[in-house]
Amino acid sequence: MAFAPALSLLIPFSPTSSFPFKPSPKLLFCPPKFLNSVLSAASSSNSQPLPPFTSEEAFLDAIAGFGDTEKFLPVVRTYENDLARLTLVGAVDSRQAITAAAADGGSTADEHISSGVTAMVVETIYPGPADDRSTVSTRLFLPTLKVKEKAIQLRKSMAKDMFQGISSKNILSMTFRQAVLEQLWSLELALFKPGTERNMSDLESPREVPVLLALSSSDELVISEIGEVVCAAALENTEKHFLSSSANRASKRLSSWLKKRQHITSKNSSVVLYNLVENELLANAKTLHEKFNSERGKYKLKDSQLKKSWLTSPAFSKLEKIGGPEFVAWISECVPSYMFEIDSNRLDNVKFEGWKTLEENRLAVVLTHAQMVSLVDILDMFYEDTFTLPEKRLPCPTVAKSSKLDLNKGSPLLKTLSTVLVSGIFFVTISVLGKLCLPKLLPIRESFIQQNSQAPLYDTVRVPDHSLEPSELETCCVSIIRRIKDSFCWPGEIRTPSGACACIGELPKFMSEGGYTNFSMSDMSSTSMPLQASEEEMKRLEDIASYQVIVSTDGKIIGFQPTNRVAVNNWAANPLAKELYGGKKLSPGLLEPGLKICNPSGMVVLELLISLNPKSNFALVRAIDTSGNIDG
């Protein structure tokens, strides 16, 4: 998942003559509860154990005296949004950390040296991918002199104008973001009170809000177990959205009698997630509506959390019919909708704060829908981040044991009949589909296999990369743009800046200044943007869908596939996809429409880049050869 491009924030430790760790109005150096973890872990990371640090000053002295033989430096990485925060303390390769801090040419190190600070503590904040209120921050602890020495080496090996036009904040924000947290020393997952909002205009100041509940550990296992059940819950909700159609309405009355409290259990049964929306909230909907009416106007409600369709239960649509969208927003913000249970016996070295203790060392906590969405966003950022514990893996949710609706109160005969009926329908369906859709299989003899074992399964014809003249290739590109223009009714003229390219609309500068065929979309992301791109153009990159179009020499589309995530989500709505399938309606289903494409005598491979932002419409088609290079 690509991180949303935005202006990154650099928070350097203000070099003053006062005690370095003393909180100031601009920056809280380190959360106090994590300070001991940083100190103890840093001392244990060396080959020879160091004496325990008795103060923050001693810790900074140890960082300042960092030796060339030591491999790691401390790092704190934090994922945070309005209602949740995940903080990880660990180790980063010392060479990578020092190089990252020296990437600005040594200007930040010079500020610390001039102020007499021998240990740099620098934090950068980067926008998160979930929404505009989520961030990812990286805080590094660095020896100032080592950073200065590295900056001098970099200056000698780079061009003099390398850093012109780029602020040191933006450079460090990119290099710090890509510093790999290789070892995990401790972590803390914290949730805040519903309705809490961050001050996004003042991220430098410490966030002084009480933590509602938290858990901390020195092992990533607890986060893995929570992520497993949360991921399975999101998939179940998505499945329910597809199943809540007209074909499923006939069984609603019967299923409502058979439902019990649904829950999802992790593979080792250490974490259980209960969904309270389906039964508890619906059963008490009238009572909740009366309470909402009596407290209307008391809360400042938000509806942004309800836009997460992959987590929103179909029950919310029923609740909306009862009390309207404000009622649903109130439930999302204020009413407990999920419950976690954790077996502390199955998870070692985990500390809980704010959790309710049950019998047999089990702890529980209830969350609102808004808190649950924030928690999922935090876990999503963590597992999508390739620069934090690159070897981590989210357990496959299909392994999780999802509770089923059982018929314990019914007779065993009813269970047997339902099983036989479902099995019979399944086998009959497979048989019918096999007769209708699969080719008839002829008996395969051993002699036939021996005679044809070396024969190719299909006749493969090698088609030249481009079998068209430049003028014909230009006409082909123009025809693709014309189809896009006519379908979306875009104004403007079609331009042909080169013989193997056609476009319409205003293209971003980083696509046009270096030549329409001299850039690669696969190399562009929010973490590796072209230096000449402005902030506004960085945002436009997220809305660019990339497709590969294969056209026969007579101009007929014979292939059309997405090549990035944005294109995957909008492939069916593209007019070229509809043309490829002869105008058939494209939507998810059991059987996909088939294609009958004759083997062409020649073909052309094109790349289509199209903006999905209605405020900045543009499309660009350019030819590529079969090796994937742009044909300039």
Explain how this protein is built.
The chain is α+β, with helices and mostly antiparallel strands. It has helices at 32-44, 56-64, 94-101, 107-114, 144-157, 168-177, 221-243, 252-258, 277-283, 285-294, 315-334, 369-384, 412-437, 446-452, 470-488, 509-512, 535-541, 565-569, 575-580, and strands at 9-12, 72-80, 84-93, 119-127, 135-143, 181-192, 211-217, 262-265, 271-275, 336-343, 350-353, 356-357, 362-368, 401-402, 495-498, 501-505, 544-552, 557-562, 603-611, 618-624. The strands form 3 sheets. It has an 8-stranded antiparallel beta sheet with strand order 1-4-5-2-3-6-7-11, with helices on both faces. It has a 6-stranded antiparallel beta sheet with strand order 12-13-10-9-8-14. The protein is globular. The model is unreliable at 1-36, 42-51, 245-261, 399-411 and 438-466 (pLDDT under 50).
Spatial sequence of strands, sheet with the most strands? 1-4-5-2-3-6-7-11
Q: Percent of residues in beta strands? A: 15-25%
The poorly predicted ranges are 1-36, 42-51, 245-261, 399-411, 438-466
Q: What is the global morphology?
A: globular
Helix content bin: 25-40%
* Count of DSSP-assigned helices: 19
The average pLDDT is: 74
Describe the protein's topology:
Elements: E1 9-12, H1 32-44, H2 56-64, E2 72-80, E3 84-93, H3 94-101, H4 107-114, E4 119-127, E5 135-143, H5 144-157, H6 168-177, E6 181-192, E7 211-217, H7 221-243, H8 252-258, E8 262-265, E9 271-275, H9 277-283, H10 285-294, H11 315-334, E10 336-343, E11 350-353, E12 356-357, E13 362-368, H12 369-384, E14 401-402, H13 412-437, H14 446-452, H15 470-488, E15 495-498, E16 501-505, H16 509-512, H17 535-541, E17 544-552, E18 557-562, H18 565-569, H19 575-580, E19 603-611, E20 618-624
Antiparallel strand pairs: 1-4, 2-3, 2-5, 3-6, 4-5, 6-7, 7-11, 8-9, 8-14, 9-10, 10-13, 12-13, 15-16, 16-20, 17-18, 17-19, 19-20
Helix pairs in contact: 4-5, 10-11
